[in-house]
Amino acid sequence: MTWLVVIVGLVFLVFVHELGHFAMARALGVKPRSFYIGFPPALVKVKRKGIEYGIGAIPLGGMVRIPGMNRLAGHDLMTYVGPALHEDPALSGPVQKARRLLDEENYDAVQAIVPELRAEFDAAELTPTSRRASNRALRELDEATGPDAYWRQASWRRILIIAAGPAVNVLVAFVLFFAVYSTGAPTGNASTKVGEVELGMPAARAGLLAGDRIVAVNGHAAATFDRISQLIRSSRGAPITVTVERNGRTTTLGPRRTVESGSRWIWGFVPATEERSYGPLTSAHYAARDAWEVVSGTIGAFASLAHGHEKGQLTTVVGIAQIQAQALKISFNWYLQILAFVSMSLALLNLLPLLPLDGGHILFTMIEAVRRRALAREVYERVSMVGLALILLVFFIALSNEHGGVPH
Question: What is the pTM of this model?
Answer without folding.
Answer: 0.77
